[in-house]
Specification:
6-stranded antiparallel β-sheet; 8% helix; 259 residues; Immunoglobulin-like; mainly beta; 9-stranded antiparallel β-sheet
Length: 259
């Protein structure tokens, strides 16, 4: 009697065992494909003949220059330790799905010690062509003044420096800042930071400012209080603006920081 009972038990267990939910002629579902990543290889250096302090770390960011000053600007950010150099070699990993067609991309980097003091930093955006195997090589400059990196957004940092008006534009990426006073100074960085414009003394107009650079290039900034979108992000600004430098016109958005 034992053998028949064992046979019945085995048949019962087989009937209760779950089977794969498949149908004849249909392949089993494929597993989810892993997320694809890519890397930017590079080397950062500086001219000074000094060694990095113990515990130094290199921070590198891949940024979308056309989305400057927006949360979506940073495509990837990574910190590298156990440095050997200079030069300091790095491999920055990023997600290609975050890239935009015809986007303009670049690198920002900074070298800090173990206490967070900034020793060296890139003073301009380092252009990078993604998808190439050639390493990006660039030079950092010695950080001046207080070596502690600034905190807050670029708008907060500008306000802390006494900037009264700040504006940004895209395609090509640019920014402009106007200081305080009856005849304030103007500083602009055009064409993704490749060109810098400074006016030491501006005259006020009913809807903005005008002045001349040291080489007598005419500069004017017209502001209009109306909702403005930069066209690259969902950020809305309270002021639209037009910056004219010589014969070149730039249009963008901004805000007054003293209000």
């Amino acid at each position: 009697m034992i053998r028949p009972l064992l046979a019945v038990a085995c048949l019962s267990l087989a009937a209760c065992t779950p089977r794969p939910d498949t149908h004849p002629g249909q392949p089993a579902p494929a597993p989810d494909a892993p997320r694809q990543t890519a890397t930017v290889e590079g080397r950062a250096t500086y001219l000074e003949r000094i060694a990095a302090p113990p515990g130094a770390r290199l921070s590198v960011q891949l940024v979308d220059a056309q989305l400057a000053d927006t949360p979506a600007a940073v495509i990837a950010s990574q910190e590298f330790t156990d440095l050997s150099g200079p030069p300091y070699a790095f491999s920055l990993t990023y997600d290609p799905a975050k890239l935009r067609p015809n986007g303009q991309y670049g690198l920002h980097a900074g070298l800090r010690d173990a206490q967070g003091k900034l020793w060296f930093v890139t003073d301009t955006r380092v252009p990078v062509t993604l998808g190439t195997s050639s390493p990006v090589e660039f030079r950092m400059v010695r950080a001046g003044g207080d070596p502690v990196p600034p905190t807050g957004s670029p708008w907060d940092q500008a306000k802390a420096r006494g900037i009264v008006f700040r504006g940004i534009g895209t395609e090509p990426g640019w920014l402009v800042e106007v200081g305080a006073g009856p005849n304030p100074p103007l500083h602009a960085e055009l064409d993704y930071g490749e060109r810098k414009v400074d006016v030491a003394r501006l005259d006020r107009m009913p809807e903005g400012y005008r002045g001349k650079t040291a080489d007598q290039t005419a500069v004017s900034l017209t502001t209009r209080r109306e909702p403005c979108s930069d066209g690259m992000s969902d950020t809305e600004y309270p002021v639209s603006m037009t910056l004219v430098v010589g014969e070149q016109t730039y249009r963008g958005c901004g805000r007054f920081l003293n209000e």
